[in-house]
Request: fold
Amino acid sequence: MQETELRALKTKVVDARGTSCPGPLLETKKAIVGLPVGGVLETLSSDEGTKADIPMWAKKTGQEFLGILGESGYDRIFVRRLK
Amino acid sequence: MTEKMALVLFSGSVDKLLAGGIMAGGAVAMDMEVDIFVTFWGLVAFRKDQVNVNQRMSKEFEDMAPALLQAMQAKHYPSWIDTFRKIRSMGQVRIHLCSMTMDMMGWKKEDFVDIVDDVIGVGSFIEMAKEAKVSLFL
Reply:
């Protein structure tokens, strides 16, 4: 997704900033089940490795990785629940 | 069928236990089941009377141990045992104690923290590890 599309998304935010790998990934896994199918989860992470891990996780678990927005000191990582 | 990871925790040093918890956590996040076989010095770390006092670190990096402990404290990093507690509550994580070491040292299951599942022999663990796609030894 383009940056403007990501910015316009209505999301549920899980703030995992300050937690180390695999903290943000585990928080994402925990939070996604609280969303309706089709809903978008936005994970806030300050862990560098999570940028690579969440797309991999989404592929493995059948969710849709939408993209990443880099902010100052952290990333916003977007995933749509597909199942 | 669910994918599995098999992990041997031989070491009871905090740095290796932390690494074990992180890798098992990664497996849980990736929807894998995890079987952990705790043996030799690993068992020491899981004892009720050691779990909160054991601060042993890998001998070869002894000089850096204070820096690691300090960084963990400063960043409010969870302890290795809290990491295991958390991932066990989130997924299929089974912690098995090695019957051979237990027998040799005269230890009982009651001597260990409440998150251990059972006491098994190495044959059972090898059967579990045979099914695992990822096997690690720490």
Remarks:
- Chain B is about 40% helix and 20% strand.
